[in-house]
Amino acid sequence: LLDAVISETLRKYPTDSRLERQASDDVVLSAGSDRSNIKIAKGVVIKIPIYAIHYNPDYFPDPFAFKPDRFLPQNRHNIKPYTYLPFGSGPRKCIGMRFALLEAKLAMVKMLQRFRFYRVPDTDVPLVFLRGFDRLYAKRLVVGVTKR
C-alpha cells in the first residue's frame, strides 16, 4: 500500500512537469487512427508534458482525485505504458529511480513510526500551489505534528 501511495503522489505531483528528448535520427510517427504521419527530423528536441499526461482522464480516470488504488498490483495492468512518467520511461529513464523510491519509503515509514500528523485549522485543504519555472510548489504546508 505504501508503494501505491507514493506512486499516486508522484502521479499527482511529478517532480518535473516535462521531459525533453532529442531525436537521434529522422523518424516518422503514425499519429492515430486517421493514419496521418508526423515527421521528426534528426536533432529536433521533443518536449513530453508529464503533468498533462498524468492528468489526462483518458489515462487516469478522475485525475484530480487522490486514488492510490490505481497502483495496487491488481490494478496496475490498467495503466497504459508510457503514461506514468515520474522518472521517465524506456532506456533513458532515471537510473536513480529505485534508490529514490526506497529512500522515500524509508523516510515515510520512519516519520510515521515516530510522529502523528493531523490537520489543524490553518491547513489548506486542498493545498494551494504556486507555479514555478518547470514545476509546482506548495504555497505553504501547515499540519500538526505530535510525537508518538
Automatic annotation (TrEMBL):
GO terms for molecular function: heme binding; iron ion binding; monooxygenase activity; oxidoreductase activity, acting on paired donors, with incorporation or reduction of molecular oxygen. It is a peripheral membrane protein. The keyword Cell division does not apply. Pfam families: p450 (PF00067). Its main location: endoplasmic reticulum. Keywords: Endoplasmic reticulum, Heme, Iron, Membrane, Metal-binding, Microsome, Monooxygenase, Oxidoreductase. This is Cytochrome P450. It comes from Medioppia subpectinata.
